[in-house]
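MODEL INPUT / OUTPUT PAIR
PAIR INDEX: 1
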Amino acid sequence: MKKLYRSNRNRIVGGVCGGIGEYLGIDAKYIRITFVALTIITSIFRPLSMVVPGIYIIMMLAIPVKKLIEMILTQLLIHSHILRKQMMLKKKKVEKH
């Protein structure tokens, strides 16, 4: 099960956009562009001018930072999963011959 974390590696302000990008599997620059565009659009309407920055701040406080040990364990799990798949593919090739 995937969890949403603020990014340690892909951060400019608080790692929120980087974390969302990692969670969704897309480049964080698109998330950042969306946040900036929404901030500009809502700033046209005075009562809404602080909504998007406020949401960002709330997300920065609510979403936990991914700890280094969790990052290492995640990478190890991904690596072991890839190795298992490679071994299974090699086994299937050997069985076909």
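PAIR INDEX: 2
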Amino acid sequence: MSGEVAPRGGSAKPGLRLSILSSGSSGNVAYVEASGRGFLVDAGLSCRRVERLLARIGRGIDDVEAVLVTHGHTDHTSGIRSLVRKCGVQVYAARGVWDAPGVASVEVAEPFEVCGVEATYFEVPHDAPTCGLRLRTEGVSAAFATDLGEVTPQTLGWMSGARALVLEANHDPQWLRRGPYPEELKRRILSGSGHLSNQQAAEAALALAPHGLSEIVLAHLSETNNSPARACGTVARVLREAGYGRVRIRAAMRGRPTPWVEVDPCSGHPDDGCVRGLTDRLFGVGR
């Protein structure tokens, strides 16, 4: 079982919880919940598939109140129209990222509220208009950055202080260079407007670890040029060698929801002894 059922409504813990329902070039969708209200970050799968994946974490399509779009390509947007038809959800996107009819366009770096959560889009370097996302409620925050070619100081600034981070770890550079992709595609992926490597993700995690980071979900892994063990192992090794081995690391997969990531309103360094989410399963890397 890849997902875990979490309590709803009045029994919900303070803070945020999230599960990456599916991640990769075939479709990206995450479910975020705060105080019993839920929304999706991206919806790159059909409404029917999203519904099946939600069921695996004990939720239904009726629990989705909104969709926040980070990237305009179909692997982030293909299910949105059917969700709107079926559920009447509100769709949000940063201006210029996905300017479809009925979408509420919001300005980059301007906070807005969704389901009681303060959400803010921030720019990331990519070869198509793309944004990261910072979510904040009850004194805790989480950040998403799943399509970007490099982690700039500005990007780090937006992610700093997040207790949970969903971050791209697309490829191992050696696997990519030796792999079957055309040379032009390899150059695009490796460029500053392409996709993050495992090592780049590890360096970003290391920069953020002193600022309260306790949970990392590695996302958008290439099926050809990466593996969960390779990605998690690279990031875990860098953090462990720097003394941050207690940061929990997981890899998001295609069609396999992650266990719930609990973003608790604990304070202080991730080594302060507070409980950091649920027990690792399947693709978690132990502390």
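PAIR 2 NOTE: The mean pLDDT is 89.
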